[in-house]
Amino acid sequence: MSIEVQSQIVTDDGRALVDMARLGLGIIMVDPLLIKNSLDSQQLVPILTNWQHPESQPINLICLGKNI
Question: What Gene3D superfamilies does its record include (predicted)?
Answer without folding.
Answer: Periplasmic binding protein-like II
